[in-house]
Write a structure and sequence with these properties.
Blueprint: H1 18-34, H2 38-68, H3 73-102, H4 106-113, H5 115-125, H6 133-151, E1 155-157, E2 160-162, H7 164-171, H8 176-192, H9 194-214, H10 220-227, H11 235-248, H12 250-264, H13 289-303, H14 305-316, E3 320-323, E4 333-337, E5 342-349, H15 354-371, H16 385-398, H17 404-407, H18 411-441, H19 447-461, H20 471-474, H21 483-487, H22 493-511, H23 513-525, H24 532-538, H25 549-562
Parallel strand pairs: 3-5
Antiparallel strand pairs: 1-2, 4-5
């Protein structure tokens, strides 16, 4: 990385000029139309990439600054302008891709850049037309509207006013009354905002359906897969995969839940009880942000030369904002600023074990972005989402040998809970995915009908959940707090697919660490050069879609779970 890379605090907040973008993009498009061969085209392509990486960075900086302080009117105004701008920029990319995919020198460019790049272009062209720009602008504004509602949550709790992230700490308290009270507070807040959030989502579904129909699709499902960049599998493959998870994982997860509440000694367990893994309390990190970042620094230094260099870069350029505070959007993410070749990690530390997870999970995302920052082809910097999540979820498991730095004597407690949580997550992940497929196959459904379908699917895959004293959640409204459903349709299944692959790295790492790490590093350096299933094939990893592979993946995990002496945790 170049030494002159600026500190994040010094990134300017600069709203791109749409007039400048229009003039530059059209000039480059005109130039590209006139080229005679692949060599001349490469010159224009380089100019195009340089210019739009600058634009994407400016928009990205505004987006991050907005999530850091959603109440800042100046940033909100800039974010609104960017929401309007993104679909217009997509229109220029559409024109650019049309020229390249239909050019007589396409084969030469495929030879130089790889066929997959042009497969991505072909797929992208199926998902865009100038006539949908107004709808995309509306969609972006609705996403920002949802973010503002969730980020602006002010929930009264025991004399304090907390946001959703801050309330999370109390939802996993060792004190059952505290957990219950926090769950009631959450339920009440969701109930008060049910109509608002339900209306936002209804508008989203209708706009996305309208976009799909304008482009000639029956509904949004196929178009959603195109937007996710899925060129190597379809909704039928995902449905078959969900069936495997239902058959192989749901019974394992239910046994884990049963054992958990038995050890807790709780009769008639409720939704809020499962956040507490052990009677003695969940694994507790050794300290606050400062302590955990120091632990992460030591871990990445010991892990490998590459991770050491990466994390020092993150620290020296202030590329993490980690602790929850008022006015900060909930959740966590990693993004990348192409102009500065810099990843950025956003989170909401709240004093729970999830704080340590962030430094491993989002650290895995950032590590991949750092390794691929100098790719000449921008489209290859970032893999599709399910491949991206392999890097993050696998890094969580590669952190196991160092986890005592974060948890001290609670290290084994954390490891057992981490693996259990990862297995238990899969049924929830397919719940979200099946729900979204139903929603977009039935776009005229009412908010109440959607909630009833959520409840039915939830009861099928996670039947242990009970919301007896939580009327809002009991009526099928847990999904209101799942931001991916609103901002990134069909994204959520990617986490589960990646989790299945990450499990394989856990097993291999316990057999031969050097070999497992070498495989992980090789895969991470691939970036987005290959679609998901080809990435797995090239790196000798089991494909979750293939019948029987889920059963093969879960088998050694049962043995790992059985190796822990859970009695000592209580």
């Amino acid at each position: 990385m170049k030494k002159e890379t600026p500190n994040f605090n010094d990134y300017p907040i600069r709203v791109p000029s749409i007039k400048t973008i229009d003039a530059k993009a059209n000039a480059l498009l005109d130039e590209l139309k006139k080229v005679k061969d692949a060599q001349e085209a490469k010159v224009v392509i380089r100019k195009w990439n340089r210019f739009f990486q600058k634009v994407e960075t400016e928009i990205g900086v505004i987006s991050v600054k907005y999530t850091l302080d959603i109440n800042n009117p100046k940033i909100k105004k800039a974010q609104d302008k960017c929401d309007e701008m993104r679909p217009l920029i997509a229109n220029y990319y559409n024109a650019y891709q049309k020229i390249l995919t239909s050019a007589p020198y396409r084969k030469s460019l495929e030879k130089a850049f790889g066929e997959y790049l042009f497969k991505m272009y072909d797929a992208s062209l199926k998902g865009f037309d100038e006539k949908i720009i107004p709808d995309l602008i509306k969609e972006n504004k609705l996403v920002s509207e949802y973010d503002a509602v969730m980020g602006g949550a002010q929930i009264p709790f025991r004399g304090e006013t907390l946001n959703l992230s801050q309330l999370g700490k109390h939802l996993s308290s060792a004190d059952r009354e505290e957990r219950k009270e926090a769950a009631i507070a959450l339920d009440k807040w969701l109930g008060e905002h049910d109509e608002t959030i339900g209306n936002i989502y209804d508008q989203m579904v209708k706009i996305r359906t309208e976009i799909a129909r304008k482009l000639g699709y029956e509904n949004y499902v196929e178009l959603g897969y195109i937007f996710m960049g899925r060129t190597d599998y379809n909704a039928k493959d995902v449905a078959n995969y969900r069936a495997q998870i239902s058959r192989e994982i749901v019974p394992v997860a239910q046994k884990l839940y049963k054992d958990q509440v038995k050890s807790l000694g709780i009769q008639n367990p409720q939704y809020f009880d499962y956040a507490l893994r052990f009677k003695s309390g969940n694994a507790k990190p050794l300290g606050d942000e400062k302590v955990l970042v120091k632990a992460a620094r030591e871990m990445y230094e010991e892990m490998s030369p590459e991770t050491h260099e990466f994390f020092e870069f993150m620290l020296s350029h202030n590329l993490m904002d980690l602790t929850a505070r008022k006015g900060k959007q909930p959740g966590g993410y990693c993004t990348f600023f192409p102009l500065y070749k810099s990843p950025f990690i956003f989170s909401n530390f709240n004093g729970t074990e999830g704080d340590a997870n962030v430094l491993c999970h989002e650290g895995g995302h950032a590590f991949q972005a750092y390794l691929c920052a100098n790719f000449k082809i921008p489209e290859y910097m970032n893999p599709t989402m399910e491949s991206c999540e392999i890097h993050s979820m696998s890094m969580e498991f590669f952190a196991w040998p160092y986890i005592d730095k974060f948890f001290g004597d609670d290290a084994d407690k954390y490891r057992f809970a981490h693996l259990s949580d990862a297995i238990e997550f899969l049924p929830y992940g397919i719940t979200v995915d099946e729900f979204q497929h139903w929603v977009y196959e039935h776009p005229e459904a009412t908010h109440e009908e959607r909630c009833q379908v959520w409840k039915e699917i939830e009861n099928r895959y996670t039947p242990h959940k009970k919301y007896d004293e939580l009327p809002t959640l009991n009526s099928g409204r847990y999904w209101l707090r799942q931001g991916h459903i609103f901002s990134s349709p069909f994204y959520y299944i990617d986490y589960t697919l990646a989790q299945v692959v990450a499990f394989q790295f856990l097993v291999e790492d316990r057999i031969n660490h050097e070999k497992a790490w070498e495989k992980y590093l090789k895969m991470t350096k691939c970036g987005g050069k290959y679609p998901f299933t080809e990435l797995l094939r090239r790196n000798h990893l089991r494909n979750p879609f293939e019948e029987g592979n889920i059963a093969k993946v879960i088998k050694p995990l049962k043995r790992i779970l059985a190796s822990f002496d859970t009695e000592k945790f209580n």
